[in-house]
Amino acid sequence: MKQLIMLLGLFFCYIGSTIAQITIHGVTLPEKLGREDKVCILNGAGVKKHYFMSIYVAGLYLKNKNTDPHAIIYDDQAIVVRMQIISSLVTKERMCESVREGFNKSTGGNTAPIQKEIDMIVKIFQSEEIKVGDVFDIWYIPGKGVMASKNSEKLDLLIPGLYFKKSLFDIWLGDNSADIELKESMLGFCQ
Description:
The protein has helices spanning 2-17, 69-74, 92-106, 115-126, 162-173, 180-186, and strands spanning 22-24, 27-29, 32-33, 40-50, 53-62, 79-85, 135-141, 145-150, 153-154. The longest helix has 16 residues, at 2-17. The protein is built from six helices and nine strands.
């Protein structure tokens, strides 16, 4: 009986992971992001929580679906994290603090080698007030680097280098991820 329940659970997880788009907390994440040769498909999505409060919906987009966080972080492949703000408690100050804390965890406290890059990415959240419904896309494009957009408008950001990409996406997918449930959802384990 246990095996049957487990098989049914896996079946429904598989069915859920093949859905073209996902709607979570009223936010519908599209099946694909990008255009031409830079298209990434939705791998998985979930909700970022802080003290049991839902903060934003996050979707992970990859060239090909993958459930191996280390491969996603370390491979020189295109990746996008889409974050849509769902709480009015998110302010630019709190988001900047959260990003800095994320880098502190992802680097094991050794942020000095990428401090300049951290300061650059924090600026995308500092530029103006953050409102419910704001959408941030953070891209890594091989051969170019990390780029970002807010509400579909490209921001003035280009951070070259695979090393920074690893530290950045380790925030969501690494061993020290602050939100394990979000990590598992982004990896496509049960939507």
